[in-house]
Specification:
- The structure is a homotetramer of 360-residue chains.
- Chain A has 360 residues and is α+β, with helices and mostly antiparallel strands.
- Chain A is 28% helix and 23% strand.
- In chain A, the strands form six sheets. Chain A has a five-stranded antiparallel sheet, with helices on one face.
- The radius of gyration of chain A is 21 Å and the shape is globular.
- Chains in contact: A-B, A-C, A-D, B-C, B-D, C-D.
- Strand 11 of chain A pairs antiparallel with strand 11 of chain B, so a sheet runs across the interface.
Chain lengths: 360, 360, 360, 360
């Protein structure tokens, strides 16, 4: 179904941006797993808006409430349901837009699909706000994975034309943790500052910018996944394309591999001193034939620039059937990429935990 | 399951490269659909090797045999099974490699997953040969779609550093047909010749090259797909990553969107003279919020360079547990991208037909 | 996943008997469907306890709260989430039982599966209380079906040894409505009174009784379902066996067909005056080859006697690893069958709507 | 999809009764499992017709051919495809019936669903012949289970009004083996002879009889399955209702439990001398809360009498739109129950192996 993914760990997301609440149901978490609610809150904080001028001013102070699946701070074998009440919504910002679909948004395609039945205030179920419950589920998945020595971390790889340095071949937990604490989660802080300048320039131009998030998963056992259509790439891609605004996903060298020679791109295998088989490079991004090699999974997700911009834009009026123009007021990020970093981690953690639970 | 995909149209692939046969089962084709076996054979021919020096010399003359699901040349409501017998296999080419996994291949990860139980002769179930049954299924799906005015076509967008021109905003059926007849399926034949030179150079260097395939789907109704995890991008990505050697998938502007401003990337909507809502550009690749806009779907898939190269490579010996080197003889394409073009069309046609059958 | 079912209409149930809340998420309801909340409440009322001495004295006055998927009283295209807060729970009733699994319950099997991690207070996620959110989802499905001329109704076919008369071949909506208003939903009120006597006798004996619910679905189009494993029987059975205490499901003549001759059991087809093909009898229960015939679907579900009885019972102590005995106090129905009637209707309505949305 | 079932072990059946071949694809068998082809053939023999006057005279001597998934007599990690060529078909037997749907068959519902597109010669994909590939898959599953100490066996519980004795609480492998060797697989051979008389009587009357098959699974670990909709009963029922002519499925006491008191039906737990928790009775049929108790699973499936009878029957003519009568010649079992016994074992073995592979 549209708002679900996973095989053995099934994640279901519900809610509309301006409805009563948003939330998730996760069926399949291992039982007896302690949840560190403070750590979870810090993780959710990374996604939250309202903290600085680079993000949407909508405050979402409210914390998740756990309706089921957690008892005495531990997962209790049954589906976990967590909800966040929608408090600070200003639907009137959107009422003017009801018949004038915003370019780059799902307004028009939702109209094509459901006519006027869809609750599209504030983007409805398509809103970036729906990534909050994804992060609740994914934040818990990250904790469960960490307990097994598996770490999921991401950084901004690019915003506008500014690039961060790539992850080293095996990013240490320490590095991933440090990045996660930064306001602009990058490896090279100089690049981060230049990214901020680009975002600020776009904002002054009543415009927005896109970017790329790079995510790594370390400590994974080899042998997860499988051939063809349900392998590691397929499942991660299915999950990552579920994040609003993602238009591309690549693994290892990805699109760059198209320019490489086989002799460059092949990763040579060797036995390390402990008798474990590793590779000297990781162009494959930790995946061969849809199955994990034991090297880190590396993926990159491309985000398009925020479609909500303050500039006047051409669109149609669905009521009068005339061409028209709109200006979007509302509250919007000039760049969603910063807040998207933990969301990419969240869906990757969920997809990876799902594969781990399936086992070899 | 690993070797299946689709919701309402379920495609299942079986067979190993050097086993008795390979084939597909497709459950859910509409009934009463005529199959043009000549057209299907021409389609399969585009994928077949043995035709020129740029492709593998293994001849696969044998045609598919339909065991079920087709009667009197029409789909007959029940699961379609088609098989291709494996005739021309030279397993001894591979026996030397049994304990020395080839870099860039699934040999090692299959070993991690199944030990010595997996039949990995010639790549086993991971072999590019398994794309033949995908093309049988996809070739039929293409015919069914064409009957409904929906056309799926692809071209080589890039090989090594050489780029073809991109598709026009709305590629005509005539253009797609013409490309499909070319030995090197490109729009700009000059680029095609330069690509061949790159492939030939790589071959002379005992090496290989990668590339990018661009695929378009025209004539699609608007409103297919859905939000989040089962939308158009998710489903197409899941299907396309099922093709061996694909390491990246992007839609519309894809990774390039990361460098764009919102004002550039947003597609302005307008009513055309027939009262249909279109957009003046198609940066979105025909998809907003996971739902079709009615503009063509445009996707690109990145293929890594063929991992099988004739050069000496470092690897491990799983029997002696020592580091070692191998040379791969066998028969291999220095570039899989040419033969991959119809395969990309095939999986896209299947995924699109699946969504069409689900309807709005 | 365990707590989900459906293909195109996906129903997910969460919550534990003594947790914070119970609820459902339903992905796939048609959009723009009005919900008659009063009718829904009357439907939920049929399942609620606390009304008379034949049912559990636990009061569940609280109404469902709709968190998503409903706006202005209509389904709004996105997943519907409804929750019921758990107010009146007396967990201490159960604390004594933590290490002494109740015979006939899931206490022991949950312990086998999850050790002490499962929240099994009051039966946890296995509790009959979890049928309340099933009824919210199913009650809405019933309304959507009724709008399309499809009616789902059930009656008690048997309790202990007392049998009601069976449904007529085509039960009218009026009959189904009348049954639904009765305290004991039967066709023959005399039988109903004798059933009450049996329940009362069991209660006086500190014991419980089982029974059978018969459910009919009228007005269904022909041609829904399919051969083999995803046909009408398979899907309805999968849904009905999801109700706690169900141990058997049969369609049409069901187990009785085992005693019949083909000449008796075959339903003769004929054209009625309107040129519609009907059958003169409905031994098939409206299903041939897993596909609807257009005649009413008729199924029966067997419920075992309530396992919670006040008598002293033998069991084990998981802590001391000794054989022991228990007495269950708590609050329990001596017969769940009365309250199960709307639950059977609910899961059937959901499964039928799911098939209807898939179409032919 | 209609012709598939299973979560981790995915079974797909293809073919029409009078098409080129019938077969199965099974994705997910453990790798490296030896297949005893002689034992498999003996198992298939139990289902085959043509051996005596009680079964259809159609000879199906041909053996399965394995196209993939098996190398050197072992499962080789990839999807297993086995086919049986259709040799001995006499389609002309059926041509007369094309427009006169046979009562009790899927002819009419297939026509409702697919019009004249469906290949319904000999029942098409609905034919009992399609149980042959189910038995190939299930026969292999049985061997894999036996290697793990899990045994699946069945007997005829009832034909017409004649009943066999029920299984003892824990049927030994020896008993299951002995039953499987009998022409009439029953425990009490006297009952078997009376059953034969009933079948013979029906045959002389140009009629047919139904029956019940009882199946047991012993040696299963506790803790398999789960609550609600994907538990042991749900999954087994979904599989068993996939067998043509099954109209009812029950577990443990099943429908009889409806007449019992809780004090009778509850199974008292106790520690045996090895510290294992067992129950003194097994009214639950080895399942509580959808999860295995470790006691044998016991289920019964009700088969309707063969709908193909030689008597004149009333039906419709779809071409002339008139009521009419038919006589079915062809070759048909007066009772399918004898040959159904291994089929019930096959689907149970597949469903149980699927659950076992999912693990706790």
């Amino acid at each position: 179904m549209p708002s679900e993914f996973g095989n053995k760990l099934r994640v279901s997301i519900f809610g509309q941006s301006h409805g009563k609440a948003i939330g998730c149901v996760v069926d399949g978490f291992p039982s007896g797993e302690e949840i560190d609610f403070d750590a979870l809150d810090r993780f959710l904080d990374r996604r939250r808006g309202g903290k600085n001028k680079h993000s949407t001013p909508r405050a979402e102070a409210d914390k998740p409430e756990f309706l089921s699946g957690v008892e005495n701070g531990k997962t209790c074998a049954f589906p976990l349901c967590a909800v966040i009440k929608n408090g600070d919504t200003r639907s009137k910002d959107y009422s003017a837009l009801q018949y004038t679909p915003r370019p780059g948004h799902a307004d028009l395609t939702a109209y094509f699909k459901w006519g006027e039945n869809a609750d599209m205030r504030g983007g409805g179920h398509f809103s970036g706000r729906l990534t909050a419950p994804i992060c609740i589920a994914g934040g818990i998945a990250k904790q469960i994975l960490e307990r097994r020595g598996i770490f999921v971390g991401a950084h901004i790889s690019q915003i506008a034309g500014v690039k961060d340095v790539p992850f080293p071949m095996i990013p240490e937990k320490k590095m991933l943790d440090e990045i996660s604490l930064k306001t602009i989660p990058v490896i090279d802080d100089g690049a981060g500052e230049r990214m901020l300048l680009e975002i600020e320039k776009a904002r002054m131009d009543l415009d927005s910018v896109g970017g790329i998030v790079e995510c790594a998963v370390t400590g994974l056992p080899e042998g997860l996944g499988g051939p063809m259509f349900d392998g590691v790439e397929n499942r991660l891609a299915k999950a990552v394309f579920g994040i609003p605004a993602v238009k591309g996903v690549e693994f290892g060298e990805g699109f760059h591999a198209a320019k490489m020679r086989g002799s460059e791109n092949n990763d040579a295998f060797y036995f390390d001193e402990n008798g474990r088989i590793l590779s000297k490079s990781n162009h494959a991004g930790g995946i061969l034939g849809g199955i994990t090699t034991g090297m880190p999974i590396v993926l990159r997700a491309a985000f398009k620039p925020t479609p909500s911009i303050a500039r006047r834009q051409k669109t149609v009026n669905l009521e009068t059937c005339e061409n028209t123009e709109i200006e979007i007021s509302g509250r919007h990020d000039p760049c969603v990429v910063i807040r998207a970093v933990p969301v990419v981690e969240a869906v990757c953690a969920l997809a990876v935990l799902d594969m781990l639970l399936e086992g070899k």
